[in-house]
Write a structure and sequence with these properties.
Immunoglobulin-like, signal
């Protein structure tokens, strides 16, 4: 191999090791909800994991009635009963959950008011080994509206 190819390969490997899990960040004075962070638990190559997202609904936003999550093609969701939604105090939020293929729809029984932070946990995620990682795309519906607006995405690096 020539030296430039070795340098390129080394740079790619070092970048892959040090690229953290990524989520969009926004100002809490914004008018739209956003994904404030995401994390993966039980970081094992072989065991199912939990993907967690923090949804921030800023004080200048409208109340949120529904969150739509587009699941990446490389991720398999085992069942809808393994999705939890809690507030910052750990209190469960009453939510109807539906899973249709790669779409998870969280319909809040009581709209989620502005100036609220939620944690959405997708448990028992079965993920592949290798690949380019996975990106969840999220959108929201607001109280009194049928318009669906994108609110962010979260990326998880695949270990392997």
């Amino acid at each position: 191999m020539n030296k430039s190819m070795i340098y390129a390969l080394t740079l790619a490997l070092v970048s892959a090791i040090f690229i953290p899990t990524y989520a969009e960040a926004h100002d809490d004075n914004a008018t739209l909800p956003h994904i404030g962070g995401n994390s993966e638990f039980a970081q094992s190559k072989w065991a199912p994991v939990r993907h967690s997202f923090d949804l921030h609904i800023p004080k200048n936003s409208k109340a949120v009635s529904q969150l739509i999550i587009q699941v990446p093609d490389v991720i398999r969701i085992s069942d809808k009963n393994r999705i939890d939604v809690v507030d910052t105090q750990g209190q469960k939020i009453d939510t109807n959950i539906s899973v249709n293929g790669k779409i998870i729809v969280l319909t809040f029984l009581n709209t989620v008011a502005p100036n609220t932070k939620l944690e959405i946990d997708i448990n028992n995620v079965k993920r592949p080994i290798g690949g380019n990682g996975s990106v969840y795309q999220m959108s929201a519906k607001f109280f009194g509206s049928d318009v669906v607006l994108p609110v962010g995405f979260a990326r998880f690096r695949v270990n392997g």
